[in-house]
Amino acid sequence: MDFSFSSEHQQVRETTRRFCQTEIAPLVRQADESERFPRQIFPRWGELGLLGVRYPEADGGSGLDKISDCIIREELSYVSQGFAASWSAHTHLGIWPIWRAGTPEQKERFFRPALTGRRIAGFALSEPEAGSNIRALKTRARKVAGGYRLDGAKLYITNAPIADFLLLAARTAPALKPEAISLFIVELPNPGLDIRHLDKEGIRCSETGMIHIADAFVPDDCLLGGHEGTYPIILESLAENRVGVSANALGMARAAFDAALGFARQRQVAGQPILKYQAIAHRLADMSAEIEAAKWMVYHGAWRVDRGTLDAATASRIKLIASETAVRVSEQAIRIHGGAGIMREYPVGRIHRDALVYVIGEGTAEIQRNIIARALDD
Ligand SMILES: Cc1cc2nc3c(=O)[nH]c(=O)nc-3n(C[C@H](O)[C@H](O)[C@H](O)COP(=O)(O)OP(=O)(O)OC[C@H]3O[C@@H](n4cnc5c(N)ncnc54)[C@H](O)[C@@H]3O)c2cc1C
Questions:
Q1: Which one of 2.40.110.10, 1.20.120.160, 3.40.50.300, 3.40.605.10 gives the CATH number of domain 121-224?
Q2: Could you give the CA distance from residue 252 to residue 247 in angstroms, rounded to a whole number?
Q3: Active site residue 57
Q4: Please, what sign has the CA dihedral across residues 160, 40, 360, 246?
Q5: Are 342 and 270 in contact (CB under 8 A)?
Q6: 237 close to ligand 1 (CB < 6 Angstrom)
């Protein structure tokens, strides 16, 4: 066993960290308060090769690995989970299935331009009545001459208000089994899709949308995989992305910890830094231990993705621990800040709001437990 990061991995971390500090950090406060994503960041990410990290060079990617992908996520989230969330919905959920199951034409039209950041992607699976239970999905796709007509609704879709295309899940026939869920590549704007921007408490600058779909035409060549569904691809994509968002959670936890440690060193109460109080020091000790545990789960998961041995229950265990760690650590960071923790001037309140999204999004903590428990019973 070798737990060290290679020099290439360390270089990925250094380059991403420098970019985040110089180009993302100055935008974070304004983007969070305006709840608008600065779209120009996507082509910049593309120029730097940050959008195609885990995809092979032959397909237009950077030819690195999942460990590098997780390092980039961690560093992006350290600075802003809002930016990292939009990056993730684009680079993984919105295009991974196209890379995995798309035709050469679909890859040329959608996957490659997404890697350059010229086209922004999103993934529209969740619905008002199908969040945790995706098999309850209701959006319908009726076959018509030359394509399909879609009707239904999607809720809480990252990037929907700024996307150039969405990978949208729908059923082609109600008679098919619940798992028969197909993916359509829907170019935007589409007159059949009405997209509303939603105001949020967490990851505010990552734009999230609600979509009303009425008689939206999608041509035949925008169906991904067969008309009887791409369910195994969806599950595989979600499992890998659970490792990915766990790296995001790790980045948030580290940011909250560093802010709390810095504050505890400089904040004087009764003539001494609060770090000298055992209660504060122990809290920080617990936080650092939890972060260390989450870190090795995340990178073990990435290592397994790279070897093709990740299973759904392992991905869920990692996501459960990493997301709960981010929530706990960021809450503790607020407490260590005292009143300052509630002030916008300090980042810990934002980090906590952002961390809460990750015990819900990408499958709630309860759903992760269900997946783990099912595997125990196999
Ligand atoms: C900011 C944000 C961005 C998002 N981005 C996307 C996106 O880009 N694409 C996309 O498709 N979706 C996206 N989502 C949706 C997200 O995946 C869902 O919110 C999530 O799966 C939960 O679904 P729900 O909100 O309908 O909650 P519900 O399913 O209504 O759950 C409510 C509560 O009931 C619990 N519960 C439900 N079923 C069970 C069960 N079987 N056992 C135990 N407990 C259960 C849940 O854990 C939760 O506590 C996003 C969500 C958020 C908040």
A1: 2.40.110.10
A2: 9
A3: no
A4: positive
A5: no
A6: no
Q: pLDDT at position 180, please?
A: 86
**Does this model's pTM top 0.85?**
yes
Residues with Cβ within 8 Å of 314's Cβ and at least 6 positions away in sequence, in order, are 301, 304
What residues are paired with 144 via a beta bridge? 147
Domains 7-116 and 231-376 share a fold: no
pLDDT tens-digit series, residues 290-332: 999 999 999 999 999 999 999 999 999 999 999 999 999 999 9
The reply to whether ligand 1 has any atom less than 6 angstroms from the CB of 173 is no
Q: Residue 360: CB within 6 Å of ligand 1?
A: yes
CATH of range 7-116; options 3.30.70.420, 3.40.50.410, 1.10.10.10, 1.10.540.10: 1.10.540.10
CATH superfamily, region 231-376: Butyryl-CoA Dehydrogenase, subunit A, domain 3 (1.20.140.10)
CB neighbour list of residue 268: distance below 8 Å, 6 or more residues apart? 274
Pocket test for ligand 1, best of 32, 93, 132 (most atoms within 8 A of CB): 132
Give me the residue spans of the domains in the chain: 7-116, 121-224, 231-376
Residue length, the chain? 378
**359 CB less than 6 Å from ligand 1?**
no
- Cβ-based neighbours of 54, under 8 Å, separated by 6 or more: 61, 62, 64, 65, 66, 68, 69
